[in-house]
Design a protein that fits this description.
By secondary structure, the protein is α/β, with parallel strands linked by helices. It is built from 11 helices and 9 strands. The strands form 2 sheets. The chain has a 5-stranded parallel sheet with strand order 7-6-5-8-9, covered by helices on one side. Helix 4 links the parallel strand 3 and strand 4. Bound molecules: phosphoric acid mono(formamide)ester (CP).
Length: 298
Amino acid sequence: MQHLITPNDFSNNEILDLFKDARLFGDLQTNSILEGKLIVTLFFENSTRTRSSFEIAAKRLGADVVNLEVQTSSTKKGETVEDTVANLNAMKPDAIIIRHSDCGLPASLVEYVDCPIINAGDGKNAHPTQALLDLFTIYEHFDGKTKGKKIAIVGDISSSRVATSNLELLPRFGLKPILVSPKKYKVSSIYKTTSKLKKIVNKLDIIMSLRVQHERHESNVLPEELEKEKQKYAKKYCITKKLIKDKDILILHPGPVNRNIDISDEILEDKRSKVLQQVANGVCVRMAILKKLILQKK
Ligand code: CP
């Protein structure tokens, strides 16, 4: 049995096979590949895209889905996450999808289950399905010719599980990351880092913009100070027409977007922005992941 905790749980060949399936599922039509299967989702952190796209992916494949509402679950009565998962496992689901703020939690749960665990995001540690859908979007855009393509990952790198998982995955397919952030969101990395987006923009093939995760930073900043900080950030890092001009470049963002802070309204409307294509790809890539992990389960 295989789990998906980080992108390194899948080999490059397994990922290329997933992409073949994702292409077949690209029209998001319903089929019965997972008829009779049951998938449980367990989201301890907020989500729009990941949770709904997993549910839609499962339903498009004919599976049933139980979304455990954490706010009304017995975790509020002191039950541990491990006990919660062991109890859910006793009801014989075919996969458990979990998002939690604790780094490493999904990995620690595999010993409590008889079905695949899929990490839907753990703190700033990993978001493997996001990285896989991001790579799929890039791969399709460049007709598989990803080798040597330069990608700037721009924003709050230090808080971002999307950045962590993409840095694990994209170089395996020949992409060259450059990490762009203000000093306070910088991490030490084997990849080039800079705080000057304008200086490198002409060299880039792809920009992946990230949201600043204020909720993961200290919360004693006054609202007016926070607003000032956001505007200061936007001046240097917002992806605008003025920044990218008419350059042939792919613009990505995992969402949620803070409009005119991360990316301008104008660029979100621009055909170079594939933000909603990423969302659509999220469903077909997750359909491929569910099919692989559930049907190969022994
Ligand atoms: N990209 C992403 O993980 O979005 P959600 O937090 O809405 O799931």
